[in-house]
Amino acid sequence: MKILINLSNHHSAKWSSDQAKEWTKIINIDFPHIPADLTGKAVKRIAENYAQHIIEVKEKLKNSSNGIVTDNDVFVYFAGEYSFCYYLLEELRGKVRIVIPTSERIKTETINPDGTVTGKVIFKFCQWREL
Questions:
Q1: 108 contacts 120 by C-beta, under 8 angstroms
Q2: How far is CA 37 from CA 34, 42, 43, 87, in A?
Q3: How is residue 32 annotated by DSSP?
Q4: Does residue 124 come out as left (phi exceeding 0), alpha (psi in the -120 to 50 range) or beta?
Q5: CA-to-CA distance for 74 and 56, rounded, in angstroms?
Q6: pTM score of the predicted model
Q7: Is residue 68 packed enough to be buried (19+ CB in 10 Å), middle (13-18) or exposed (0-12)?
Q8: How many CB atoms lie within 10 A of CB 125?
Q9: Using alpha carbons only, how large is the chain's radius of gyration in Å?
Q10: Which residue pairs, CB below 8 angstroms and at least 24 apart, start in 109-116?
Q11: By the 8 A CB rule, do 43 and 83 touch?
């Protein structure tokens, strides 16, 4: 069994089947709004609260599974505001398995008749990488 806690603005319902297929269950948690004018200390407090929530979700999954779900079955993915993610990584490292999706960046450019360039970027999911 593999359970992913997804803390991002990228709800798993919008993922490709390749990105979602590895997980038995995905729990989506909305990424918090982090105002740009917050101090690092304030962002760290928010990250600490989210880390505690993630640990509580993991423990609840384990406790409600009659021993089926173990520490090794629960993973977390988070993406968003950089300082928040840094502090969250510090809080969660060693407490829950952390993964990130990897992707290939496919870029095409078209030169328009007026000389402007139109670009298109596609991110093709490749794999989940554990940190």
A1: yes
A2: 9, 10, 10, 17
A3: P
A4: beta
A5: 12
A6: 0.89
A7: exposed
A8: 15
A9: 18
A10: none
A11: yes
pLDDT per position as a tens digit, 32-53: 999 999 999 999 999 999 999 9
Count, in order, helices (H) and strands (E) of the chain.
3, 5
Quick: pLDDT tens for 25-35: 999 999 999 99
Domain residue ranges of the chain, discontinuous segments joined by +: 3-130
Kindly state the tokens that stand for 45. Answer: 């407090």
Residue of 11, 32, 29 whose CA lies nearest to 20:
11
- The Cα–Cα gap between 8 and 29 comes to 7
Phi, psi of 51 (to 5 degrees): -60, -45
CB 70 within 8 A of CB 2: no
Specify the 3-state DSSP secondary structure of 46: helix
CB 105 within 8 A of CB 123: yes
